[in-house]
Amino acid sequence: MTKLILIISISAILCTVFILLCVIRTEVNNKYRNRIYSVDTVPASKICLIPGASIWGDKPSHVLEDRLLVGIELYKKGKVEKLIVSGDHGHTSYDEVNVMKQFVLSHGVNEHDIFMDHAGFRTYDSCYRARDVFGVKKLIIASNSFHLPRALYIASGLGLDASGVPSDLRVYADAGKNAFREFFAQYKAFLDIKLFKPLPRYLGPRIDINGSGVVTQD
Questions:
Q1: CATH number, residue 189
Q2: In terms of Cα–Cα distance, which of 37, 68, 33 is closest to 53?
Q3: Whole-model pTM?
């Protein structure tokens, strides 16, 4: 009898945990899906945030290149006035941000309209710093469909008026890896927004987003 009670108790706990995990994933995935638009239908905003992703030497990966291309399209169509390229530049040997900057420069974006966030080590940091370093209140996030729901969940949870535009311009060879990583990242996002509310790894001085992005070059 005692063994049966133990089995029932463990089963109940596991079922509760499973349901809780499903609820969390559903919230992160769906809460702000109504804020996802196409390039042509997204409401205009002054700022487009382009989150970083992996680079191949001095070139963006396909995932990152497509985020940049959508950000550039938003800029050229007058949907946004400024781009924040936010990524990992934690070491001199790895620099997502300057790769991103050079790419958008090569596609005709004015260097004064490119703001470089060298401490966008993760999506949470990029959104937090957009708000507290660059003083952004409203923005468009250009990112891939597998990442965009979490990015909007984080940005909105930090009080930003955020919309998103998907950047899926091709089929990605590492789609399975991206989905696996995103599975766990969604739970981390939920805990960061609802419970921990950590500071980003690095905050730094305020930068005027209404000025020239040249001051962020490094």
A1: 3.40.50.620
A2: 68
A3: 0.95
